[in-house]
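Continuing the batch. This is chain 6 of the set; chains 1 through 5 are on the previous pages. Same settings as before, nothing changed between runs. Recording input and output for traceability.
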Amino acid sequence: MDAPASDAEKYLAVELDEESRKIVRELALYEEIRGDHVTLAYAKNGETFARDWIPGNRSIGDSLGFETRGFSVTDEIQVLVVCIDGSTQRPFDNGTLHITVSKRAGVPSTLANEAILNVTLVPFIRQLKGSIAWLQKGKSGK
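Output for chain 6:
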């Protein structure tokens, strides 16, 4: 798998197609609306990207369908847990696959991981589509 020139500035994700973005963004409760991707992996401490971080032996540019499994909402952030190929677990770090739907101004997106762990998920099933892509950090919320 070809990594971008600067791993520190990009991350590997499922970028939602336009219809899926619309479905997710219509659910937004807070002022900062995200709802455009599922993070698969990000480089930290100089790590090199590995092909097995992409579920189902897919490649960059491949399309895939997946589904939401549940909603988590706190006073600061709103998150959808998703399932790809029968798993809600990220191969990269065993974290939970999710979409940050919206958040209050100034709340870091990383709070989504805590929201998933500390709040009971409300079952919520929707079919979504996207494609595997390298995305630029700080460019969320297209």
